[in-house]
Amino acid sequence: MGTPEEHDISFVTDPKALTYLKSFQPIPRVNLAEKYPGADTDSIDLLNKMLQINPYFRITVEEALSHPCFAKIRKPAKESIAEKPVTIDFEED
Question: Mean pLDDT across the stretch 35-61?
Fold first, then answer.
């Protein structure tokens, strides 16, 4: 059925969101290595760390960018950091 972390929704505080999430039956986590047999282990590891419903267990942006998956393609000298947080309209709902 998965680990307790996979089904932990204690981080959700909105009552409507809690009701919605509780309307679903828990399902086992998909084994991404089986689903994508051609993917390398770094890619599978990154996906597993990114695809966590609980944000406390999810990888941060900084951790994701520093992941070995990007070691050969990342060019930190060309990167910049936004001066202010990026806001996406749908996050306001």
Answer: 94
| 35, part of any domain | yes
Contacts of 49 (CB under 8 A, 6+ apart): 58, 59, 63, 64, 67
- How many domains is the chain built from? 1
Cα distances from 55 to residues 33, 65, 75, in angstroms, run: 22, 17, 27
**Is 83 part of any domain?**
no
Q: Is 2 left (phi over 0), alpha (psi -120 to 50) or beta?
A: left
Segments forming the whole domain that contains residue 68: 4-74
Half-sphere exposure of 12 (CA within 13 A, CB side): 14
What's the pTM? 0.71
